[in-house]
Amino acid sequence: MAITLLYGCCQVETCVADLPAARDAMRDLLDAVPVEQELARQIAALMPGSGYDVDHLECGGAVFQLNQPARGMEFNGQTSIHQTYLDRNGPCVTNLNYYVDDIAHARALLSGMGAAVHIEGPSNVARALGDYGPDNTRAGAGERPFLFMGTRHLIGFDLEIMEPNFLRLHDQQVQFPAFMEPRPVPRGDLWLHRLVVLVPDLAQAWAALEAIFAP
What we know:
Blueprint: E1 11-15, H1 19-30, E2 33-34, H2 37-44, E3 53-59, E4 62-68, E5 74-75, E6 78-79, H3 81-89, E7 92-99, H4 103-112, E8 116-122, E9 145-150, H5 152-155, E10 158-162, H6 202-213
Parallel strand pairs: 1-4, 7-10
Antiparallel strand pairs: 1-7, 2-3, 3-4, 5-6, 8-9, 9-10
């Protein structure tokens, strides 16, 4: 049974070598502006003193997470997959982020297809992702993991997935994925229309997409 995605893509995640330079370039070239700043600060604070930094930008009507990894940094004993991709490919899109209805099923399905777990931690590792207020917080966030799954060899990009810790997406002010309107900050004249994914075998990638998502 394929994975059920609860919403559209929450963010496009990237790795960069120089976060200030990447932020400036996206601002100057693509009219990107800061968004989800409290969440970005909390994520950046997860590895203090490591050199790791992160920012969230509204760009073309979508949210981009820019990760500046630090060589040798670890999270929960796991080495940085962002540094691996930066060394291998240079600055690039690493993964897309989605909410799923059943994280255990998603893990089993993807693991069975040969996807490694690159990063794992509690889904409330950033405080804002586990506390949406007394009337909109789903209990048990600390027991539900987020997973960064190595699906690049299957579909051309990795997946970061978790179950939501909110009850109602539109009754929260933490995240503003592309499908939420109105947008939380002014945007420029550019719209993101699509991401182009490069794969070595289109038929195999399409079969994997159908097995994972049933598009």
